[in-house]
Amino acid sequence: MKYIPSCIRIIQHYHAQRYFNSVKLLAENGLINDINISSGSTRYDSTLNTPHAHFICRTCKKIFDIPLDMSILTVPADFLCDNINVYFKGVCPECSKKQI
């Protein structure tokens, strides 16, 4: 019985590692985009969604998808770009109402 907690931790670690390896593989193959909005965490977005920007609320820390015409963004001719991340920081409407 004393080995059961250790076994559970090993299994949980294995499943978490398997999950992260799968997500990394999807990102490497362009099936999802990695989004590094805040330090210490990486989020992922489907490449099937309409391109959009993100907004992170400084108060509640929620991240919102916001519409943005990504076709207006250009990269100089000598650069090869495979991922574009646009994000805004500020206060969301819900938190703004609470501050009034």
Ends apart, CA distance between termini: 57 Å
Helix content: 25-40%
H and E order: HEEEEEH
Beta-strand share of residues: 15-25%
Task: Describe the fold and architecture.
With 100 residues, the chain is of the alpha+beta class. The chain has 2 helices and 5 strands, in the order H-E-E-E-E-E-H. A 3-stranded mixed beta sheet has the order 4-3-5, with no helix packed on it. A two-stranded antiparallel ribbon has the order 1-2. The chain is flat.
In terms of topology, how is this protein built?
Elements: H1 4-28, E1 32-35, E2 43-46, E3 52-57, E4 63-67, E5 87-90, H2 93-99
Parallel strand pairs: 3-5
Antiparallel strand pairs: 1-2, 3-4
List keywords for this structure.
100 residues, alpha+beta, three-stranded mixed beta sheet, two-stranded antiparallel ribbon, 2 helices, 23% strand, flat
Write a short abstract of this structure.
By secondary structure, the protein is an alpha+beta fold. Helix content is 32%, strand content 23%. It has helices at residues 4-28, 93-99; strands spanning 32-35, 43-46, 52-57, 63-67, 87-90.
